[in-house]
Amino acid sequence: MSSPFFLGLLAVSAVDVGLLAFTQMSRRVMADRARRDPVGRTYLVFSTGAVQSEALAVYGLVVTLLSGSMIYVIGFSLATWGCLGWIWTRFKQNLGSIPNI
């Protein structure tokens, strides 16, 4: 399945993973909110990452339904679980760096 739709969906998935990495690693994302509400920022970054990784599973489902091959859903699911695992470890790190009030 090397149709333009599949290649486009693959490109969108790569951009989604890049955006996911940017939102998880960048201190500039919601920097003013981190000063006012560090806990809220931590949960917001976590939930944004979870939604972005969920999009990978949806992309895999669409490709699987259109192609009829289960290999795509397996690959996209593994990518989604990998992203969710990484987001969870980043979440725990961010919670640990919140100053005690």
Describe the secondary-structure layout:
Elements: H1 4-25, H2 31-36, H3 38-67, H4 70-96
Helix pairs in contact: 1-3, 3-4
Oligomer: single chain
Structural class of the secondary elements? mainly alpha
Principal-axis shape: elongated
Largest β-sheet summary: none
Roughly how many Å is the radius of gyration? Answer: 16 Å
Termini distance? Answer: 55 Å
What is the beta-strand fraction? under 5%
Q: How many helical stretches? A: 4
Number of strands: 0
Share of helical residues: over 70%
Flag low-confidence runs: none
Order of helices and strands: HHHH
**Number of domains in the coordinates?**
1
Mean model confidence by pLDDT: 85
Description:
The protein has 101 residues and is mainly alpha-helical. The chain has one domain (4-96). 84% of the residues lie in helices and 0% in strands. It is built from four helices and no strands. It has helices at residues 4-25, 31-36, 38-67, 70-96. Helix 1 packs antiparallel against helix 3 (38-67) and helix 3 packs antiparallel against helix 4 (70-96). The longest helix has 30 residues, at 38-67. The termini are far apart. The relative contact order is 0.15. The mean pLDDT is 85.
